[in-house]
Amino acid sequence: MKRQTLINQLDQLDEQLTLRTKAIGVLAKDSHDTLKQVPPVWLIGTGAVAGALVGFLGPARLSALSIKGSQLVPFTRDAFALGQQFGGGE
């Protein structure tokens, strides 16, 4: 390949990387702003419950339980959407 072609490809990749970096920055700021809205008591409480659950069940059983729970995500998403249609989410 010619040198100029390689330079142009690098410039395109640099632009793509810049756009992705900006998008990640926006998502991180949004996540941070959302987390700031959660009361600290909830964060501490959920951390304590999660720690107690890991201590009680053990990491292996908790991992298996998490996998089974993630399989319910499509069902719960549909159930919440149905509830919002009937005004339950307001």
Model description:
There is one protein chain. With 90 residues, the chain is mainly alpha-helical. It has 2 domains: 1-37; 40-90. It is 87% helix and 0% strand. It is elongated. The termini are far apart.
Structural descriptors:
mainly alpha, 4 helices, 0% strand
Which descriptor suits the 3D outline? elongated
What's the number of helices?
4
Total domain units: 2
What share of residues is helical? over 70%
Quantity of strands, as a count: 0
Task: Report on the biggest sheet.
Answer: none
Order of helices and strands: HHHH
Query: Which percent band covers the strand fraction?
Result: under 5%
Query: Distance N terminus to C terminus?
Result: 60 Å
Low-confidence stretches: none
Decide which structural class fits the backbone.
mainly alpha
Radius of gyration from the CA trace? 22 Å
Mean pLDDT across all amino acids: 86
Task: Provide a quick synopsis of the model.
This protein has 90 residues and is mainly α. The protein has two domains: 1-37; 40-90.
Describe the secondary-structure layout.
Elements: H1 3-37, H2 40-57, H3 59-70, H4 73-85
Helix pairs in contact: 2-3
